[in-house]
């Protein structure tokens, strides 16, 4: 069994923490099934998660009703092994020794559900590829 200290931690960051980063966190948490610690945050958190994002995630059986946008902190970045930015610009603090990835993805804000689904599906594909990198032996 993997020790807690050996569990990789991933932080997803976008501006409002109301769309892309919430979908990515929920999808990675779901697929990793406890094998990865997952967090998300925003450089300027919104008041609530985008309703279209909640709806497209519910279609996959993932409930975001208890989730909420969280502020980005230096501590969260420092704790992460991998930091994935999604349009947060230069506001994300950079620490030596961290792995940073920037995922260029459309912002679901203001889009109807039928336009949010392809964004969700692209995030899902990227999350699955990331999980395969993080846990290659997949015991």
Automatic annotation (TrEMBL):
Q: Does the keyword Nucleotide-binding apply?
A: no
Domain Phosphotyrosine protein phosphatase I residue range list: 8-133
For whether the record's keyword set contains Iron, the answer is no
The entry's protein name is Arsenate reductase ArsC
Query: Which UniProt key words apply to this protein?
Result: Arsenical resistance
Q: Which GO terms describe its biological process?
A: response to arsenic-containing substance
Q: Which organism is it from?
A: Actinomadura physcomitrii
């Amino acid at each position: 069994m993997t020790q807690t200290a050996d569990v990789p931690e991933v932080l997803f960051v976008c501006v409002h923490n109301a769309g892309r980063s919430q979908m990515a966190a929920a999808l990675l948490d779901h697929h990793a099934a406890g094998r990865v610690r997952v967090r998300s945050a925003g450089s300027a958190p919104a008041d609530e998660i985008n309703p279209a994002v909640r709806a497209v995630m519910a279609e996959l059986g993932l409930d975001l009703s208890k989730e909420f946008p969280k502020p980005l902190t230096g501590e969260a970045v420092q704790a992460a092994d991998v930091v994935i930015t999604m349009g947060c610009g230069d506001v994300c603090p950079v620490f030596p020794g961290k792995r940073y990835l920037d995922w260029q993805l459309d912002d679901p804000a203001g889009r109807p559900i039928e336009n949010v689904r392809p964004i969700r599906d692209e995030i899902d594909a990227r999350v699955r590829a990331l999980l395969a990198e993080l846990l290659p032996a997949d015991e």
